Design the sequence.
């Protein structure tokens, strides 16, 4: 199913932590409940903070930070940064 359709159906958010698979849940440790408290997103703080240039521990930290500080304004900034990153290929590697 296309990501846009997932958002329209309410299965995903535009902004939020990226989806993880069951094998990755253990890597979230005590922070798993925070991760699971929000819908996964097409983009998120991790994507705007280096994506593949970050460690998995940094990804977890960024996901938890997003959950704890999320707001409409922060989501708007993340979307704008994502557009810039996609256009300039920042963090792709």
Sequence:
């Amino acid at each position: 199913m296309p990501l846009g359709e997932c958002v329209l159906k309410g299965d995903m958010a535009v902004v939020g932590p990226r989806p993880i698979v069951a094998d990755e849940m253990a890597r979230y440790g005590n922070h798993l409940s925070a991760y699971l408290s929000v819908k996964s997103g097409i983009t998120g703080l991790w994507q705007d903070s280096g994506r593949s240039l970050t460690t998995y521990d940094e990804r977890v930290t960024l996901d938890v930070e997003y959950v704890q500080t999320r707001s409409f304004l922060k989501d708007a900034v993340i979307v704008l940064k994502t557009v810039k990153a996609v256009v300039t290929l920042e963090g792709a590697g």
User: Anything to note?
Assistant: The helical segments are 3-9, 32-36, 56-69, 72-88.
